[in-house]
Every structure is written in structure tokens, then in C-alpha cells.
Amino acid sequence: MPTLAGNQVFSSISTDVSKILSHSRPLCKNFSGSCIRLTSVAARARIFSELTSQTLQCKNALSVRDPLEAILFDIDGTLCDSVPIHYYAFREMLQEVGYNGGQPITEEFFIKRMNGLHNDELCHLLFPDWDFDRAMKFMDDKEAMFRRLAPEQLKPVNGLDKLCKWIEERGLKRAAVTNAPKESAELIISMLGLDDFFELIVLGSECERAKPFPDPYLKAVEHLKVAREHAFVVEDSASGVKAGVAAGMPVVAIASRNPEKLLKAAGATLVVTDFEDTNLWGALKELDRNLGC
Q1: How do the domains of the chain map onto residue ranges?
Q2: Using one digit for the tens of pLDDT, what is the confidence trace for 102-136?
Q3: Class of domain 70-81+156-288
Q4: How far apart are CA 162 and CA 175, in angstroms?
Q5: Domain spanning 83-153 has what CATH number?
Q6: pTM score > 0.85 for this model?
Q7: Does the annotation count 129 as an active-site position?
Q8: Residue of 16, 74, 161, 236 marked catalytic
Q9: NCBIfam families per the record (predicted)?
Q10: Residue 55: helix, strand or coil by DSSP?
């Protein structure tokens, strides 16, 4: 289970001990003339014990302040394994318009360069020479293709029901935060049976800036009326992870399709395979112990 490394904990403790001792009772002379502090060994041990406890309480695997109040979810690739459907739709349609000399894009290119980006940004990436309206028409057609394919192929990420139950039992607030168009986002949430689960859906298109900027996540915590320190984000793309980190929240990243290395480089606090991952549940159990400061 990912935790703060031992050396880091005790380095932090030692620093805090030094600070406290620097404000302890003044120096005096002992019988041999040496300078000593009027701080007993027992007192030092007590200070060290208290600081150890406080440091371990402040640091949990998700770095969330107690109490946890909200969890913010991305949709595509996070709640469901929709990445292959998006990849297929883009690959087929880009090949039709002669992108990349008519050669199909690779899954690696899609994941590293495209996955998680807002459609406006994808227009500029894929079609820098196209008229914007033409590029957006392509994106709209691609989303329509996704919605045709999704009902037969969309599956929830393993353990989603279990995590949703954990959240509901604790009365936590929750929001879906996505760069997807409204129609696609609502379709996925409906297919997963989560219409009544989310209190709020935040669309990147409704914010001044979409992911990877923090605006969508900042809007979510504002509307839920929770502090960033009492929430964390669940994402699956580097773009989404960067958005959560920029918003000042720890991010759990689902590495079902995206490489773990890519997600960690983006700043993910914890990378897991799915919602059954023992590392995730270990971190959630830490939060359950109410050890925050």
C-alpha cells in the first residue's frame, strides 16, 4: 500500500523536533561547566512520540485532509472502458478523410496525443489547416459514431459498483467532470445507471478553459461547496490528471489503458489498475480511520 516513505517521515519529524527544542527552556551550566538544556530525556521522547503520531496522521496515501467530503470523477475511461470505442471511431473516420496520408492512427498515438483532450483542442491538433467549423463538424460526426457503438460495447470499470456503494454509505458529495460533449456524457452516465448518483455534471465546454486546465474541477468543488483539501479526483488520462493536480487536489489515476509512467509523470498521487485494486482500498481504509489533522 503506497504510503509516505519512512525516511521522509522521520526527516520531517526530526526537523520539527529541532524547531521545538530551539524554543525550549534556556541553556544553563551543569557542574562540569558544560551547557545543557533543561529538557529531560523523557520530555524529548514524549515530543518525538507526539510528532510521529501527528505526522503519520497528516500523511495518508491520498493526502486528503480529514474529513473527506467529496470525490470528483472523470467519465470516459474512468467510469467505463470507453477508450477503445473512441479510438476505433477516430481511426476509421480519420482514415476516411486522408489524415496521416490515409494511414490509420495507432493506439499509442491516440492515448499519448489525443485521449482526454477537449474536442476544440483536438480540432487544432488534427486539422490545423482546416476551417474550424469543418473540423467541428468532423468531431460532431465522430461523437455520433461513438454514441451508436457505445450501447453494445460499453462496460463499467471493474469495481465501480463497489466504490459507488462505499461513497454512498459515507454520504460523500460527488460530481462528474468531463471534456466530453453533453450528449455523450449523459449517455454514458445513463448506461451505467448513475443518473441519481452524481449531484453535478461539469462540462469542459461550460468552463472558460477545459482540461488540462483546472477550471472544470474548481467549478465542481465550488458548486458542491467543499474545500479542495477535503476532496480528491479520479481520472484516467494525462490531461485529466494535470487538471486535477492544477486544481490543487490529489488524483487517483486508473491505468486501464494509459501507461502508469505517463500518469505518474502527469502528477497522479496514486495509480491503480481499476476500482478493485488493493492499493486503492488500502488508501480508502486509511481515510476511514479518520486520522487527518
Answers
A1: 6-58, 70-81+156-288, 83-153
A2: 999 999 999 999 998 999 999 999 999 999 999 99
A3: alpha beta
A4: 17
A5: 1.10.150
A6: no
A7: no
A8: 74
A9: HAD-SF-IA-v3 (TIGR01509)
A10: helix
